[in-house]
Amino acid sequence: MIRNLAQGIRAFTSNVFLVDGETTALVDAGANFDVVPKVREVTDHLDAVYLTHTHPDHIGNVDAIREAFDVQTWGYDAGNLAVDNRIEDGERIQIGDDVYEAIHTPGHKDDHLCFFSRGSGVCFAGDLVFANGGFGRTDLPEGDREVLIESIDRLREATGDEVTEIHVGHGPSVVTRPQDDLELAARAARVNR
């Protein structure tokens, strides 16, 4: 089961997805709210924290989560203090009951990853794309619109018609025809660049 622990939080934070199963994990840690009690409402144990990227709104709660659950974090940039272990592009990781492929998708930030499970059709897209054709900002350090467009195209190619839901870094998850939202994002990112 996938739960967004940041749902209803009125602070600047990313979504925080708790996925329980064979490997109980968080996808992103959020910021500016106490996530630990939210995790404890569901479980007393975390096996891993997977980070889509290291912008402050996605990693602000990392230290509190590490301390409360004695858990390590995984992300693309092992040089960042929030990342204990590096995930390589194409590496396979266990989240919940499914195996996900890590897909390096820079453009919003150099260390951005998406996670896609061919078995379940679930994708964690971080800030690469959002519902209704939204896409990640490129006006922050390391942002690059052309690279972002390439990354959206790469995610579309990797997920194809197999994607059944996309859980994004901000706003609602896309659980109906996510291919349409990916296509919209690819088109929108190409406008006014």
Automatic annotation (TrEMBL):
Family annotation (InterPro entries): MBL_Glyoxalase_II, Metallo-B-lactamas, RibonucZ/Hydroxyglut_hydro
UniProt keyword annotations, A-Z: Hydrolase, Metal-binding, Zinc
Keyword Metal-binding among record annotations: yes
Domain annotation Metallo-beta-lactamase: ranges: 13-170
The protein's required cofactors: Zn(2+)
Top-level taxon in the UniProt lineage: Archaea
Recorded GO MF terms: hydrolase activity; metal ion binding
Pfam families tied to this protein: Lactamase_B (PF00753)
Name this protein carries in UniProt: MBL fold metallo-hydrolase
Organism: Haloferax marinisediminis
